[in-house]
Amino acid sequence: MSDAAPGPGHPAPYACPVHKTALADWHCAQCGRSYPTVDGIPILLHHSNSVFREADYLPRQGRGGYDGASGYAGSLDRSSGLRRLYRRAVIRLMDAGAPRRDFGLADALAAILREQPQARILVIGAGERTVAGGAVYTDVAFGKHVSCIADAHDLPFEAASFDACVACAVLEHVLDPYRCVDEIRRVLRPGGYVYAETPFMQPVHMREYDFTRFTHLGHRRLFRHFAELRSGTTAGTGVSAGQMLRYALAALSDRPGPRRWLKLAGLLAAWPLRWLDYAVHAKRGNYDAASGFYFFGRLQGEPLSDQELLRGFRGSVC
Ligand SMILES: [Zn+2]
């Protein structure tokens, strides 16, 4: 492990997102490009590969705030008064954890830190998420804890820089999740950990920045270069049924005003469906229509074969 490794007391091993080689004062000696920083946050985007443009993150005249990609940041709450109250109530209802859940990010991190208390952790698409023990946080929008603006297709870090990588509710928002997982593998040390949560039966969220869904086996194949420590549902069929009902009701109108109330009505109508999760949690059929899946694994040499993959099917067989 190098002395420049991130983690408690160590700086992050930032690299050019194009050449993946170390930066000196945010300058890449290979391409001669200098990357800007905004309020100390480096903007490390691949200029031709990313859908996000460096210029969108730089302060402009007459604008105090700047949040990068406008559509992506548009999902952040900038409302006030009654509308803010309404949005907070809706978010509170939507964000309530799954009613039945046996493993999650906190459990994965506890397992990692038990084995390696100084583990260097990378959190991709961090949002407002923080993890115990300190970490490097990337996102494509500025946030309270974001360490750098980065696109997961080209992580701006040197190879083998991290012991663990977290990507929760991220891989549905990237255009090429396979490429992003290749990047996760590149920045992890051999035997490094990954923990990911990705939706399966969930409606579109975050507007145009939502591209992909995974079945349990599809998710397993995405991480085929990792040995599985544990995988399962993040929320079951009850939660996904509720989400579908909410979106079906909201689809009754395309006007913002009525949609707001239809969404709230949908949330209240769908709420009891969540409790179905208690009844279906241990059933095979829960895997056929779960809201999402988690995967916790360790980087290994040989990938899982596709024949082996099929033997991991956990859904209903009748
Ligand atoms: Zn470069």
Describe this structure in words.
With 318 residues, the chain is α/β, with parallel strands linked by helices. The chain has a single domain (82-310), classed as Rossmann fold (3-Layer(aba) Sandwich), CATH 3.40.50.150. The chain contains 9 helices and 9 strands. The chain has a 9-stranded mixed sheet with strand order 1-2-5-4-3-6-7-9-8, with helices on both faces. The chain is globular, with a radius of gyration of 20 Å. The N and C termini lie far apart (50 Å). The model is unreliable at 1-9 and 62-75 (pLDDT under 50). Bound molecules: zinc ion. The site of zinc ion has 7 residues, from loops.
List keywords for this structure.
single chain; 318 residues; alpha/beta; Rossmann fold; nine-stranded mixed beta sheet; 27% helix; 17% strand; globular; disordered N terminus; binds zinc ion
